[in-house]
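Quick one:
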Amino acid sequence: MAQIGLKYGKYSPIDENGKYTGAKTLGKLISSNVTPNVAESTLFGDDEIAENASVVTGGTVNTNVTEVEPQTYAEVLGHSYNETTNEIVRNSNDVAPFIGYGRVITKIVNNVLRYKAEFLSKVQFKSNLPEEKTKGENIEFGTSTLDGKFFTLPDGTWSRTAEFETVEAAQSYIDELMAPKED
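Output:
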């Protein structure tokens, strides 16, 4: 399997009842790196390993996009946004909300394209600002990076993954995971 693409960065705020509110576009993805934190323990008995356990307890998420729209930036980081003036107001008391985060990875397997939908159940990004540089002799693009943590749900779920034959099916899977559900 060779991964040859990344697209369809979507997020959904999680409401006060723990429900997703609907998929929204995060931005055009450049890269996404997910690193689980794994708690491990080994129990020895009779001079050998008697038990071994490893559990994902959460982890980190690093996502790089071409651009994050101001309204989206404010929403995923818990800042205020004024639509009339297109102004983001950052306050030290702001708290980033929990969101679901999904993306589609294009793969090629035996010369056939496949599409892997990856979804993190509960993510919280943290505030940051992009690195800024002056224009020089060569053009260098500056992009937006969102760093954060992912968490497990009360039932232990932290991620869902499925593979599809079409990109549309993978995108629909992510949208459905983040669709509002009725009780």
